[in-house]
Amino acid sequence: MRLASAPLRRVCRQHRALSTFVERDVVILRQKLNQDNIIVTKPLNPANKISTHKGDISHADIIGKSPRDLVTSSAGHEYRIHTITLAEYVSLTRRLVTPIYPADANLIVSLFDLHPSAADDAEKIEVLEAGTGHGALTLHLSRAIHGANSQVPKPAPASESVEDQSLTESGNGEHQSESDNTLDAWKASRKAVIHSIDISPKYSKHAAKIVAGFRHGVYAGNVDFHVGDVSEWIKSEHVRRDSEEPFLTHAFLDLPATHDHLSAAASALKKDGTLIIFNPSITQILDCIQKIKRENIPLLLDQTLELGNNGSSGGKPWDLRAVKPRASSKNQPTEAGSEPAQSSGSESLNESITRDPAQALKEAKPEDPNWTFVCRPKVGERITGGGFLGVFRKMKDTARP
């Protein structure tokens, strides 16, 4: 009973917090007579107000109200107050880069098939996100693993007495050190963590702010933000852990030159772990497949999916495989103008790339001009989409390169 009571208390506390809006909440206002007129507030502060062309709305008038209550602007226009959803939050908050839209983020999370557990004997989940960007996928991933971790410890309240604070400055330092030690101990005990890395300090800082701004940072404690090159970070993690063993459960790469980081990512990925790469172009996915073949990287292409456009639902499967025309396999020249990749008389490496890549690496040489690629939607015509996902599986454990 004691094991079940703590999560229940946390749920009850969150329910009470959401029953009325409090300071630091972010809410959505929709004009009563025009639902398309949407306002996303900054964190509520009783001293602040929202200025619109239809009058000002005081934050103090929102605090204490419940979801779907009405608030009136200074010009007499009514707005309905709504609790902001995660999908609305990542789509409507200020951005420095284009976010991964909620439908795509949900698809990516589902492909990882995460099953977090807070049990003492549960294996720790560590997910790498390379290319933090806006922080949209970061939030979705953090929400997915949230059940594995206990509540972030709150810092002990500092003394509000000016007299007490003036007695000794070292006391404040000791208090801060104690809080830091408590937080460090909690982080070390986490059963699930998202490692989110971006090459840009500006983007990483903004994404951390986005994550911390959703529902008082409820999911922020699950994420460790890093700035730098992902391959170098992986090497440094091996050194820090003093181990060559893979430590990542899954990984997601959203980078301009993804193929340059495949080897490092594979070295850190546990056996049967999922590596998902996002690229705007299908040819970039092909570059990654060729890199895997050329360097014998132990990754198995499981599927290739096309994402939707402008946040629409995606996941359209593509047929992506290497083939050799049967005439070439018999050392016979092919006719000019033929399309061997789509010929019914071709010898396919589909099984070796998407089912048994180890055998493919032995049989197919990337420099062999007779090998080519099938690259087409599996059903119907190609629809302009928001990019492509290559979903790979780690085949075997390997030493760090």
Detailed description of the structure:
It is built from 14 helices and 16 strands. With 401 residues, the protein is of the alpha+beta class. It folds into two domains: 2-84, Vcp-like ATPase, Chain A, domain 2; 90-149 and 188-394, Vaccinia Virus protein VP39 (Rossmann fold), CATH 3.40.50.150. Strands 7, 8, 9, 10, 11, 12, 13, 14, 15 and 16 form a ten-stranded mixed β-sheet that branches. A hairpin with a 5-residue loop joins strand 5 and strand 6 (78-83). Helix 4 packs across helix 5 (136-145). The protein is globular, with a radius of gyration of 26 Å. The two termini are 48 Å apart. Mean pLDDT is 80; it is low at 1-17, 158-170, 327-366 and 379-385. Its EC number is 2.1.1.220.
Descriptive labels:
single chain; 401 residues; alpha+beta; Vcp-like ATPase, Chain A, domain 2; Rossmann fold; 16 strands; transferase
Shape: globular
CATH 4th-level superfamily of the largest domain: Vaccinia Virus protein VP39
CATH topology grouping of the largest domain:
Rossmann fold
Tally of separate domains: 2
Estimate the helix proportion, in percent: 25-40%
N/C terminus separation = 48 Å
